[in-house]
Every structure is written in C-alpha cells, then in structure tokens.
Amino acid sequence: MQSAENGTISLQARERLGEQLIYYRREHNLSLHHLSRTSGVDIRHIDNLEAGKTNSDLKTLCALAEALGKKIRIDIID
Quick one: which of 2, 18, 66, 67 could link to 50 by a disulfide (CB 3.0–4.6 Å)? Predict the structure, then answer.
C-alpha cells in the first residue's frame, strides 16, 4: 500500500479506494456534487480520488466515509 521509501500510496491501492468510493456513492445514488457538499471535500479532490490519481489524508477519508454512511478500517499487515 504505502512505500516506506517515498511515502506514496501504490497505484493499486489508489485504484481500489477509487472503486470503493464510486461503488458506495452510486449505491446511495449520490452525485459528486452532493457528496462534496455533505462531506466538505472539494469535488475535484473526490473526482481525482475516484480516478486513482491522488492520495488523501485520513481526515478527508473519514469525512467521505461518514457522508456515505460508512467507516474507515485500517489494517497493518505483514
């Protein structure tokens, strides 16, 4: 997920996050605009997250999860 060398999240992890955001947003029949308004996250940032083009901080991910009626789970694994 995250490289210890440069602190960036792998493309695979970003794409998986984007897929989940799209899935849950569509499950709740929410537009990007509505999710942006309810979460307080800029619409361009959400769009880039869904496309797997950017990273985000935990505070932003929690705001999106809350707006989608979900929770964030972080696992530290070998």
Answer: 18
User: Rounded distance, CA 9 to CA 28, Å?
Assistant: 27
CB contact set of 26 (below 8 Å; sequence gap of 6+): none
Q: ∠ CA(25), CA(57), CA(61), 5° rounding?
A: 25
List the structure tokens of 26: 């569509």
Question: pLDDT of 42-74, one tens digit each?
Answer: 999 999 999 999 999 999 999 999 999 999 998
State both tokens at 37: 């308004």
